[in-house]
Each structure stands twice: as C-alpha cells, then as structure tokens.
Amino acid sequence: MAKKKKDISKVLFKEPPVTYYPYVDNRLVIIDWASLSYHLFHSINSDKNREKYGLHDSEGELRLWRTKMIDRVMDYVALFNPRHLVFALEGKAAWRKKFVEEYYGEHADIYYNKSEYYVLADNYLYMVQKAADGNFAVTPLDIKDADRLAELKHRKLKDMPEKQQKMFWGIYTAGGNPILPSYKGQRSKQPWTFRTDKKVWAEYRERFAKELAPLFRARPIQCFHAEGDDIIYATIQKYAGDCDDVIVITKDSDMAQLISRKVRIFNHQTDTFFVEPDPVRYLDGKVLSGDSSDNVNGMAFVDTRKGKVGLFYKGKANQIGKGSAPILLESCPNIYETAKKNGWADQYMRNRTLIDLSRVPDHVKHEIEDCMAATPEPEAPAGFERLDFWDVPDMAGNNYRRLQATGFYCVNPVKGGLPFNASLFTRYRAEAEKPKIELPEDVVTADNIGLDAELSDIDVMF
Asked: Do the beta carbons of residue 321 and residue 298 sit within 8 Å?
C-alpha cells in the first residue's frame, strides 16, 4: 500500500500566535473565565506535569492552576493593555437548561407497554428497558420504526409523572449520550481524572476569579441565571460604544457571531484571532446545524435543498450538519419562513433562542444589568497580600510588580500613558549593540514612555 502523503498546507498556512498587538487608549478586554480555566486546568493533567510539579493531591493541582491563571492574565495585560477588564463568570442555574427541559417536555413523546419505554425526540428513537441491576438498557432504533409505535400508549414527556420525567433526563446510552438532549448533557459524562472533585473545582474556579480580580482592577461579573456567554454579550452591548475596541478571550467558536469592526475574538488555546468574514451567516448556519459541544441538535428531517420535512436522509444522518447548513441557506434565503411553511419552525426557534446571544430572555437581561451595577470597576489595584497566600512562585509576583512599574492600566492607572510592547522591547535589548533604526511614531517602545527604571534592571516578561 502506498504511503499517504502528508498534507503540509495546514502547516504552511497556519496562522502564527499573536505576540504583538497595537495599544489604544481605551480598550475593553473580556475573559471567558470558564473557558480559560478549563483549558489551563486540563493542561496540567499529564504524568510529566504530575511528576515535575508534585501534583499528588488537590492542593497541588489548584496551586499550579492558580499560577497558570495569574500568569496568563498578566500576559493578556501586557499584550493588550486594557483600560477595562471583565471576568465573565458562570451562573449556578443558567436559564438555557430549564428552557431545554420545557421544550422537550412539549416535543418529546414517550411510548410504553408493560416491559419497555420508547423515547422519541427530534430525529432520535430509543428503546429503554430496566435491567436486573437497576440500571437501564438503552437500544437506539431506526427513526423509520417510529410508525410502528402508534398502537402503544403514549404521552408527552411533560404529562408523565414528575419522578419519571427526572428518570428520563438521567438515562444515557452505552456511549455516554443522553437519550434526551439535555443542555450540555454530554459534558457530565466526560472522564474527570483529577484529584480535585469536579464540583469543588467548579465552585473554587468562580471564587478565585473574584479574589483575583482586585489585583487587576477587573470586574468579576456573575449572575445566578446567566452563562458567561450572556455576560460577554451584555458587556459588549453596554460598553463597546464608549471604548476604542473590545477583545473577547475565549475558545468558544460561538462567539464568532459577535465579531464586528470594533469586536475581535482571541482564542486562548491557539493565541490567534478568530476570522469570520460574515458573522450573520455564520450564526444562521450554527442555528441550523446545532452545537454539539452544548448538546444542541441540528434541524431534524429537513431536506437541505428544499427545506421540507421528511426522511430524506434514509437513515444515514440524524440531523443537518455544518456541511449541509450552507446548502440550505443558499437554497432558502428566508430561512424562518421556510421553517414555518415546512413544519420545523419550533426546532428553528429553539436553536435560535439557545445559540443567538441577542435572544437572552428579558428577565435574565435585567438580572445581568443589576449584577453589573453591583460590581463597579475598582479605582486602584488591591489584594497584593493574596499572592503569598496563594503560594505562587516569586517570579509571578516579580512580573506583577514590573507591570505596575511600567504603567499598565490594569495594575497602575495613576501612572497612565501607553507602556512599551514586550515583544518589541525584547528585540530592542537583543539589538542594543547595533545601530538604531528609526521607528514609526505610533510604535511604543521603552524610549518614548519615560520609564523610571533602567533597561538593564527590567527583565523581559515573555
């Protein structure tokens, strides 16, 4: 067999990490705290790191994670020099979970006899039998077999006894997928191999954000019924008009719907910016194809060329995917009217509500506004004593003090003025013995901001 040639195009054209970004006077940076936290917490979970850092218990894991989070926030302060910084936190009872439960309470059908249940939701059909050990045996069936259930007793999920409703929401296939598409339901079954209990870490993650925020004059905004995505959207809507630009730090591709002339999305996993030339069309496609990471199904039973409901996939696919969504958009420009005409408007509005951040319910919007009002921006950084309490390495504390001495807005708003760019400064030191080169006036270096310290006394941060 001939050896498959390696496609080097992705390597040749891979976007390099961002190491320099122009400063402006009034920038807002929003950090998706849960997204960054998961990324850095999972980055420590390797045998090499456990051996290197002595991660033998929960406290060791948390200590290393705290250090990584502090270092990363300092990196973003140096890279973007925000005047305003927001940590967008997760609420404890996000509204989307209840919305999904209410939707499937109305749209999921339960068929039953004396020995088994049949659960029909969207384009999925499962047979559920109770096993001898008290667990459930779940068998996926072909959706075309649904017609055979007509003679069985059946009810809407919402009309089942409450105990049985809870039972159905807690049943998973052998592969770990929930038989009812509970919001983010797949995440709860993903393996968690840390010493720290998952619920303990989730609570500590949000608490640490609130403890860390004063050091960077950041606003840690959390609302009981809102997700971090909702906080990000509301913050942009409220403050973007008064800022020069906005940078959102996340790896959630859903945030691409927010890209505009003033708003950019920075991927903390690749250190690059998301590129999306048509955010509106991107959002429309996402609504049609769903969001697998949040366990939101795509449109079911829809012919991608005509938008009509039917078993057009002949059992080969369960829903519209990323590849077929653009075909449907091209064939049916007025997608909502097509949905109404062909019987899938309920599905469309379900996904539009879940994915389109502008569709946040009014009561959640009001709650976020109240949370913002209750979390003003600190006038000066505080809480330095916690660096010792958190047991972070001396290097992190030294880097923080260098940020202050240089005059970055988040840690030293009094000093003011634009600080140097760290990558340019690195090159400046490396080329110190060579003839000086004339730089454009708008390039900020150590020479034109009037540093109090000598260059030799300041270590490079990157």
From this structure: yes
Which of 353-369 are b and which e, b meaning 16 or more Cβ less than 10 Å from the residue's Cβ?
bbbbbeebeeebbebbe
- 297: enclosing H helix or E strand: none
Pairwise CA distance, residues 340 & 348, whole Å: 9
What integer pLDDT is reported at residue 447 of this predicted model?
37
Its pTM stands at 0.85
What is the Rg, in whole angstroms, of the alpha carbon atoms belonging to the chain?
26
> DSSP string of 5-67?
PP--HHHHTPPPPP------SSEEEEEEHHHHHHHHHHHT-SHHHHHHHT--SHHHHHHHHHH
pLDDT single digits (tens) 151-208: 999 999 999 999 999 999 999 888 888 899 989 877 666 688 899 999 999 999 999 9
Q: How far apart are CA 291 and CA 295, in angstroms?
A: 6
Residue 76 CB neighbour total at 10 angstroms: 21
> Can you list the residues of the chain whose pLDDT is less than 50?
1, 8-11, 312-316, 424-462
Residues 6+ apart with CB under 8 A from 316: none
Look at residue 303 in the predicted model and tell me its pLDDT. Answer: 78
Reduced to 3 states (helix: H, G, I; strand: E, B; else coil), residue 205 is helix
Locate 270 and state its tokens: 């690749």
| Residue ranges covered by each domain of the chain | 109-179, 279-363
Give the tokens for residue 313: 């996939």
Q: Measuring CA to CA, which residue among 373, 400, 95 is closest to residue 219?
A: 373
Who contacts 426 (Cβ-Cβ below 8 Å, separation ≥6)? 460, 462
What is the rounded (10 degree) CA torsion for 424, 264, 282, 41? Answer: 80
**pLDDT in the model for residue 311:** 52
Burial of 266 (0-12, 13-18, 19+ CB in 10 A): buried
